[in-house]
Amino acid sequence: MKIAHKITDQLSTKSLAILSPNGGGKQMFAKALIEHLQAQNKQVGLVSFESQQQTYEHELKIDLSDITNEVDPGTLAKDFLPADKLDHPLIKALHLEHRLNTGYRSLSSGEGRKLLLLKELFSGSQVLICDNPFDSLDTNSCDALSSALEQVIHTGVQVILMLSNLIDLPNWVEQLAWLNQQEFEVLGANNSNNQHTIKNHFADLVKQDGQWPQNHKRLADYPHTNIAELIDCQVIYDGQTIFPAQSLTIKPLQHTLITGANGSGKSTLLQLITGDCPQCFSNNVTVFGFRRGKGETIWDIKKHIGLVSADLHRNYRVNCNVLTVVLSGLFDSIGVYKQVEASQIQIAKQWLNKVGLADKSQILFNQLSFGEQRLVLIARALVKTPLMLVLDEPTLGLDESNRQRILQFLQSIEQQQYSTILMVSHRQDEHLALFKQRIHLATD
Ligand SMILES: Nc1ncnc2c1ncn2[C@@H]1O[C@H](COP(=O)(O)OP(=O)(O)OP(=O)(O)O)[C@@H](O)[C@H]1O
After folding, report:
1. Domain ABC transporter spans what residues (predicted)?
2. Is the ipTM of this complex over 0.90?
3. Domain 219-441 is classified in which CATH homologous superfamily?
């Protein structure tokens, strides 16, 4: 790839941020760049959503739980790091010191990401490529990571950030570049002029959304007072209480935002509601009028929920095309195993159009970029006009314009009044006024 040569020629500076939209070719670019740098005998480290997914899939492969009938934690967090670095202050700054004996699969999504970032930071690489390193990290961790990257530059390491949001650009970055497919442009110094150019590049990509897909659902027939009610709920993993007794009531249209540091239990709280946390049965949880553990099936619950989460994303590993992934939202399955009606296909296509991926409907899901996959999963969650939309960091991996598109969806859903939104987000600009109820989970 010629552009990889171009960048190494240009990279006389220690730090470069490459801004790129979803589908802009970051993955291919990073691959070409790594090959090019390795040919020069440089040691290169890479952290990306894709490498995180590969680590997860490797951990699933080596999981011996089924064979030994005991829970196999897999590789412990500490084994990802050099033994002589286990006391490094950065581990504490990223709040990972108490997770070192946890298996990788059990880490929260932010914790997993921070661990892989630490692994690469400690690896002694001469060039470090980080694809959206601040996505899914809480505010304190973003600050700690940013200053760690800045410090590592002073030790002679070159840092290349690949970012999808200008808002994530640290001010210590020296050079800026823009990448969109074959278009690669080194803009020069990190100053307001060049930032403005990038802002315009992103703005040029905003497409007019198609019409809101047909929707006849209203909440009027919903027979219960609450969508969900949790009373004094607690989850304990490996003898550790994840959050102190938590109560929460969500009424119809009471859109609710959950915030808190990485590992504070946000996803776990959501999983008590969706039924994905096994401890929902030992807790006092009522969802859509079903008191959990009293004979209802998980499907009684799931059929009313549209879900986007890191867990769903990393476990969506069936090799089917994009349209099938959207359709699978109608059946709450991974892949589609039922006859699909023409009207359902039509609605699924409308949703693909709405997320800007109409032209990719026949492409295999796993051939899309991480951000594009996320957009498909959002369409999958919305396709059945669910009673409750559970969005656990839905905009992870999305670029500036796609994030705005999804935030507009939320506004539109609020106006149409058929779905109650329950969302987790670390990003301040996603804490919309429509969230009338806000729950902050504190870590001790
Ligand atoms: N199956 C499990 N076994 C052991 N520990 C677990 C398990 N699942 C989650 N945990 C731990 O529980 C804590 C809460 O996890 P959770 O995913 O709910 O955090 P979170 O607030 O959503 O974090 P993030 O912001 O990083 O997504 C984490 O420290 C995680 O390591």
Report:
1. 228-442
2. yes
3. P-loop containing nucleotide triphosphate hydrolases (3.40.50.300)
